[in-house]
Design goal:
Helices cover 0% and strands 48% of the residues. It has 160 residues and is an all-beta fold.
C-alpha cells in the first residue's frame, strides 16, 4: 500500500477554517492538522466535502475521561477549547456505499513549559452523506467565531 500526498493547505491569513483543495478519492485517508496558538476558545471540528448537513456523529474522550457523544451533527469535534498549539492526526476509511469512519488523535500544548503536561483527546466519528459520496476535501474549522492563525496547516495523504 503506497501513500501519496493528496493536498496541503497553509493559511496565509487568519480564518475560520482551513480547507484542502479538492483531491481524487482514495479508500484510505490520513490527515494532519496543526493549528497554531490563537486568541480565545478554539474548539476544533472537521467536515468532509464542505458538507454542513446533520450527517455526522462522534464520540470524544478528553484526557482519559468519560466519553461524550453527539449525533446528527454538522461536523465532528476533534479538540476541546484551547488557546495553545494543537496537533491532530485523523484516519478515515472512504469506501463508496459505506459509512465513512474516522478515528482522530489530538494533542494541545496546554500551559507552556516542561512542568505542565499536554492535554489529549481521542475521537471517533462517522460521516453519512445522502446521497452517498466519496470524500474529496477536508475542512478543519473553529465554531466560536475566533480565527485560526496564519501558518496553521492541514495536509491530506491517501492510499487505495
Amino acid at each position: 500500500m503506497a501513500w501519496g500526498k493528496l493536498k496541503n493547505k497553509t493559511l496565509t491569513s487568519a480564518g475560520d477554517n482551513i480547507t484542502t483543495d479538492a483531491f481524487g478519492s482514495r479508500k484510505f485517508i490520513t490527515w494532519l492538522c496543526h493549528r497554531l496558538t490563537g486568541a480565545g476558545d478554539q474548539s476544533g471540528f472537521f467536515r468532509f466535502n464542505s458538507n454542513s448537513n446533520s450527517v455526522y456523529t462522534h464520540r470524544l474522550s478528553s484526557n482519559g475521561g468519560a466519553d461524550s457523544t453527539a449525533v446528527s451533527q454538522s461536523s465532528i469535534q476533534n479538540s476541546s477549547s484551547s488557546i495553545t498549539d494543537n496537533l491532530c492526526i485523523g484516519y478515515t476509511i472512504n469506501i463508496l456505499g459505506e459509512e465513512k469512519l474516522t478515528i482522530c488523535f489530538n494533542v494541545n500544548g496546554n500551559t507552556a513549559g516542561a512542568g505542565n503536561a499536554p492535554s489529549r483527546i481521542e475521537a471517533v466519528g462517522k460521516f453519512v452523506p445522502s446521497p452517498d459520496a466519496n470524500i474529496t476535501s477536508i475542512t478543519q474549522l473553529v465554531t466560536t467565531g475566533n480565527n485560526i492563525p496564519i501558518d496553521s496547516n492541514l495536509s491530506a495523504l491517501g492510499s487505495n
